[in-house]
Amino acid sequence: MREVNIALIGLGTVGSGVYKTICLQKQRVEHKEGISLNLKKVLALEYAIDIPDSLKATDFYADIVSDKSIDIVIELIGGISPAKEFILAALGAGKTVVTANKDLLAQHWPELNAAAKASGAGLYFEASVGGGIPIIRTIWESLQANEITSMMGIINGTTNYILTKMAEEKLSYEEVLAQAQAQGLAEANPKSDVEGYDAMYKLSILSSLAFHARVPVEYIYREGITGITLEDIKYGQELGYTLKLLAISKREGNTVQARVHPTMIPNTHPLASIRGAFNAIYLHGNIVDDIMLYGRGAGDMPTASAVMSDVIYAANQASHKYTTFYNEKDASSEMTFEKNWESAFFLRLIVLDAPNVLAKIAGIFGSHGVSLASVMQKEHGSESVPLVLITHKAKELSVKQALGELSKIKEVTSVANAIRVES
Amino acid sequence: MREVNIALIGLGTVGSGVYKTICLQKQRVEHKEGISLNLKKVLALEYAIDIPDSLKATDFYADIVSDKSIDIVIELIGGISPAKEFILAALGAGKTVVTANKDLLAQHWPELNAAAKASGAGLYFEASVGGGIPIIRTIWESLQANEITSMMGIINGTTNYILTKMAEEKLSYEEVLAQAQAQGLAEANPKSDVEGYDAMYKLSILSSLAFHARVPVEYIYREGITGITLEDIKYGQELGYTLKLLAISKREGNTVQARVHPTMIPNTHPLASIRGAFNAIYLHGNIVDDIMLYGRGAGDMPTASAVMSDVIYAANQASHKYTTFYNEKDASSEMTFEKNWESAFFLRLIVLDAPNVLAKIAGIFGSHGVSLASVMQKEHGSESVPLVLITHKAKELSVKQALGELSKIKEVTSVANAIRVES
């Protein structure tokens, strides 16, 4: 039986899951794959789980990089430094690297890629996006004959948990966030999740891979869920929509749009049924048509499943594949990143309950080339009442200009929210 | 650039899709994969699409098996013979075979596998189940570290189309089937789909692969949708359930249960939202937890996407992986195939509208160890009224015995339907 010698760096949630998985599934992998997973070294700042002393490394370079018998390094310490230095050193020594480090990949992929290519080592990162969902391998090894033209994903579990709970239990954002924090489902400082940064990094990786063109985070529009109210969700439901934080990217020719924002989708859309902390990625390829992958987007064991799938996959490869980017050096030289994309809008306005208000509002939208698909006004009588509009597809800037103009007329008390709609 | 020489056998729906995909995507594959897809020969009984004469083969053995330059044979003629002879000859000549032939695989997999192993050729069959959905590769190359313990799939598009249409438009089975036949979505003789044979073959392949144990079709319980009425669907909806034809298999130790039958699932289950002709497979692995893949389960281009993913994948492998079955020779020697599994039941009875009827019915269920989870009786006044029951989980045989006894008492006019419930 072929032995694969592994070093594991980092013993946090995912690292511990990987350690447990190797112990639990070693025999099964030997039977199925004919590979003996031999964990040779573990390096961590703290050993929160029980690890034999003989496995504990003290110095990455002396104990791991210099150990010629080690084939694969699993990097799970996260962050940029020293993860980047460690990965470059491991790749430089010809060791295949398996990582879950989305921040690092989103920001330094070409450099890591070049180091892997130079030494012939593999660079695998299934666990960087979507936890246990095999979305990277699917793009890489199942949709090779496709041109992927669009992608919509629920790729942050915390925000999907919050939005699901708000919708199903009719609770406010603040209440659910506090509950989620108490349960450890949201961090004390939830910014990375609720403001869409986490989804943005993941979208950068997925889009770059799917489009074979780097989509750096600085070209991704980002808007979180902190401005979402229960009213928005309820009015959306009445109109047949579910509110999700979606990571969206589309490619047409060499033009790419990439954006993370709250989005209304029809209840009949498969993404609408993704509840709680689950993740799902919905893709369109020119040959395969629509496809969706669903699963746990985080957690020790689901993410360990993805890490170990990379380890076993890499161990079976005689040589490794590398992503090729059209815009390797300068992201914007070969690609155009569209900011003025088209989408429909769900608009919640507070307006005076007076004759001709709707006509005036529709007129202003019309003057900006924005037409209305549906209108809902349920309350009457009080001075100011909510008016909910769904527009047809329109240019982003046109809708913003129309809303700017509307906010100045006396009939509109406020533009309470503007949420994009995808179908 | 590395050339991969391909022969394509069969030019029906999927074969034509493969031909088109090679023409359309050749350049893209060259750029992304560094592989030049070179279609050398096409063999078909009829050439319904325009193919250069130089590509047309007349004899499989002389033109394809004997052509040493051909690396990969794509078999899309379907059926057992001559597909089996062709595949064995190609494998014997060391040529990798890519096939969509679910009947052949379900019935002769060990023999094909042995031929592939003997010559070192690859045997790939992503397109045999789930059209464009990469479920085979996911089990094979993404869930390697998992023990897959259960699987539920919507793997027949025709029946899912029929059930969706009945539920959404409140039409009878007969009406929708006729519509589907008129539109070419169901065959003139729909037996293979509506009686669950197609799903049974696919479940055999998926379960065998997932459990690493052959699950031959003769051990799969099969029940189609011909007995489903709009009443069943409507009562299910009132109780929060969606009716689907599910292919289900579960493994516990060396005991496997495998069954295809109409199933009520909670509306909140991800499979409940799979509409129309789409397919989805929902898996549970001991490490990854729950995972679902969704996409088009049929059609020329989606299935071609799966075929071409196998061709490109195979072309990138220095050596090929083979499935190993615990019960290679005699399926039942190492495995137990459970017929008396546990599941909840949705029961629609027609009963006399008289006092104590429910108590008597509950008593009979109780005497067989079957307890009731919920009861719905909406109509009153006429002599016979519908009574809908949901049981707790119970043994298959216990429920059948209880129903047999019930059908004999005067208070029960008839057992209109008994549909299993999964959650």
Describe the structure.
Two copies of one chain form a homodimer. In chain A, the strands form two sheets. In chain A, strands 6, 7, 8, 9, 10, 11, 12, 13, 14, 15, 16 and 17 form a twelve-stranded mixed β-sheet that branches. Chain A has a five-stranded parallel β-sheet with strand order 2-1-3-4-5, with helices on both faces. The model of chain A has no long low-confidence stretch (mean pLDDT 96). Chain A starts with a strand and ends with a strand. Chain A has 423 residues and is an alpha/beta fold. Chain A folds into three domains: 2-128, NAD(P)-binding Rossmann-like Domain (Rossmann fold); 135-296, Dihydrodipicolinate Reductase, domain 2 (2-Layer Sandwich); 342-421, ACT domain (Alpha-Beta Plaits, 2-Layer Sandwich), CATH 3.30.70. Chain A is 37% helix and 27% strand. Chains A and B meet through helix 1, helix 5, strand 11 and helix 11 of A and helix 1, helix 5, strand 11 and helix 11 of B. Strand 11 of chain A pairs antiparallel with strand 11 (289-296) of chain B, so a sheet runs across the interface.
